[in-house]
């Protein structure tokens, strides 16, 4: 019982939230928040909030040399990003309230704020299914979570964004875990069949399964939006789940496999959309991968402290989309070299009671493992959407 409770508190849950996110919004009787009020947003451009958190990063080369790379937000961003955060709320109720806690602010600072170097970032608060509800669910306690409200809220926020802010601009949709599941339903129900689809630069659904027919890029969860296979392609979907290459998904994993006959989980490597293995531009937490992660040890053999919240390790991490054992996933390799002074390992596995939950893979690193690639990809695709040559 203690182990199960710890799991609910420390991991980013998916199983019960999947049903929540895929339910029809009409069943919810709770009125949607008023997204005309800026207080209903975790992030909006032009103000100081979670998405204006410091993004300076310490770059550590293989030889141990380091420098601090200062973050520069875009002065006049040419496109927008609409971000929906994963399951993080510690509110005591089955669904969260609309008051952001440190957990919502932290995850937005970690997953969304870096996109502000390229786009205007919008992130609605929403009454997500909480960790409290999932703890009760896992431990067999009665719980009455509203499974329709997350999608209803995000739909209302999206409609408000279109009415007040979009003005014909291109937009990248970004989600992780519960956020990805909510966005997946939003796209299927309210975007890909509507004229607004022409404004969609890309949809980044990370840490969730997106069903596609085996050998094809479209026709499963989405009928019109294909998987992205080039950084010059737009109106497409970027999606993957991550596992260590030397620790593939076990049979009980919920990631990388879909139940529908003839369907597979889509995988698009943001470092190599055309396929193959490539070094990723990982931007990792300096101290850990977040709640549920083991702490990170020294980054270099001299134990020198890192003074920024984020670390870049050029050349250390590679990734490749693979199909193995009935699973499709992004296989992550740490290119360790015991001869150099830089670390030979990274944290990111979900750990409970000292045990690694291998069925969760590197879920905590779904975005950080390719953060730099995702940000640059959004910028490349936005340029293609605007029909202009890409300028870095």
TrEMBL record:
Signal peptide: 1-23
One Pfam family named in its UniProt record: DUF3089
Keyword Zinc-finger: no
Entry-linked InterPro entries: AB_hydrolase_fold, DUF3089
Keyword tags: Signal
Protein name in UniProt: DUF3089 domain-containing protein
Species of the source: Sphingomonas oligophenolica
């Amino acid at each position: 019982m203690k182990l199960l409770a710890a799991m609910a508190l420390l991991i980013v849950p998916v199983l019960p939230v999947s049903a929540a996110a895929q339910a029809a919004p009409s069943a919810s009787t709770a009125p949607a928040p008023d997204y005309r009020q800026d207080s209903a947003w975790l992030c909006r451009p032009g103000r100081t909030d979670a998405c204006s958190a410091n993004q300076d990063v310490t770059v550590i080369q293989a030889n141990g040399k380091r420098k601090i790379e200062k973050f520069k937000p875009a002065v006049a961003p040419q496109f927008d990003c609409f971000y929906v955060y994963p399951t993080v709320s510690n509110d005591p109720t089955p669904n969260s309230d609309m008051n952001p806690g440190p957990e919502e602010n932290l995850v937005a600072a970690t997953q969304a704020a870096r996109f502000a170097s390229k786009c205007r970032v919008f992130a609605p608060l929403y009454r997500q299914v909480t960790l409290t509800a999932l703890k009760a669910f896992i431990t067999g306690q009665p719980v009455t979570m509203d499974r329709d409200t997350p999608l209803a809220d995000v739909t209302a926020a999206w409609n408000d964004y279109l009415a007040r802010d979009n003005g014909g601009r291109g937009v990248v949709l970004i989600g992780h875990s519960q956020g990805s599941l909510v966005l997946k339903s939003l796209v299927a129900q309210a975007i890909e069949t509507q004229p607004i689809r022409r404004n969609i630069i890309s949809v980044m659904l990370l840490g969730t399964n997106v069903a596609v027919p085996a050998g094809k890029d479209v026709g499963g969860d989405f009928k019109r939006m294909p998987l992205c296979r080039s950084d010059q392609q737009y109106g497409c979907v970027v999606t993957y789940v991550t596992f260590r290459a030397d620790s593939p998904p076990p049979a009980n994993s919920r990631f990388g496999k879909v139940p529908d006959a003839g369907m597979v989980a889509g995988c698009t490597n943001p470092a190599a959309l055309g396929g193959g293995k490539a070094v990723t531009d990982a931007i990792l937490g300096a101290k850990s991968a977040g709640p549920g992660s083991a702490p990170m040890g020294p980054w270099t053999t001299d134990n020198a402290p890192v003074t920024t919240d984020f670390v870049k390790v050029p050349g250390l991490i590679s990734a490749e989309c693979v199909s193995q054992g009935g699973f499709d996933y992004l296989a992550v390799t740490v290119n360790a070299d015991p001869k150099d002074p830089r670390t030979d390992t990274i944290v990111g596995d979900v750990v409970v009671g000292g045990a690694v939950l291998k069925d969760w893979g590197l879920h905590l690193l779904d975005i950080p493992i390719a953060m730099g690639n995702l940000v640059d990809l959004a910028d490349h695709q936005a340029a293609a959407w605007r029909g202009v040559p890409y300028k870095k």
